[in-house]
Amino acid sequence: MTSSIQFYTNPMSRGQIVRWMLEELGQPYETHLLGYDSADGMKSADYLAINPMGKVPAIVHDGHVVTECAAICAYLAESFPEARLAPAPDERADYYRWLFFAAGPVEAAVTNKAAGFIVEPGRERMFGYGTFDRTMDVLEAAVSGRDYVCGAHFTAADVYVGSGIDWGLQFKTMPERPGFLAYAERLRQRPAYRRAKEIDNDLIAQMQAGQG
Questions:
Q1: Tens digits of per-residue pLDDT, 159-176?
Q2: Residues 164 and 181 in one domain
Q3: Same domain, 117 and 135
Q4: What is the pLDDT of residues 177-186, one digit of tens each?
Q5: What residues form DSSP beta bridges with 64?
Q6: CB 98 within 8 A of CB 142
Q7: Radius of gyration (Cα) for the chain, nearest Å?
Q8: Is 158 inside a domain boundary?
Q9: pTM of the model
Q10: How many other C-beta atoms are found inside a 10 Å radius of the C-beta of residue 15?
Q11: CATH code assigned at 20
């Protein structure tokens, strides 16, 4: 029987975020692996009909296409409330605030710096994140002093925010601050995080072996 969630990804991509979210969800899903350059990959006509941006990840659920990692995480949390990955009513402000903060200012600040782009003094107001250091200050404060970004309860926002911090620490695009290190370590203990990493790491190993 075909799964109601179709997952389009490449293990060496942001698809790892959605893989983790799907493992937290506990619902069956079918994985479609796409290459970056192959004729049947991300730039194929079939996939461009799903995501015209020609990038992964994307999901199709009950005929509905969702792209962008933060949107996918939020959509899945609300579509499967039994997983308890959507926030309680009194946590929704923090949930949306930090989910979109990570998708906007944090993503822009980190990728700009990694590309060698530094905001010139006096031009900070032209950019949504102001400066890299200020963005890191705010992000660290958001994940410090409590277990998760919404408080005591893990939500889909932690999948997205946590993935960004986890990768930032791994690839040295974020500073090794105490708040980041403690938060990432808590998330790395989650069974779903470990399952997702094992699946994608195995796929990466298979892909690399095939290229050898």
A1: 999 999 999 999 999 999
A2: yes
A3: yes
A4: 999 999 999 9
A5: 61
A6: yes
A7: 18
A8: yes
A9: 0.95
A10: 24
A11: 3.40.30.10
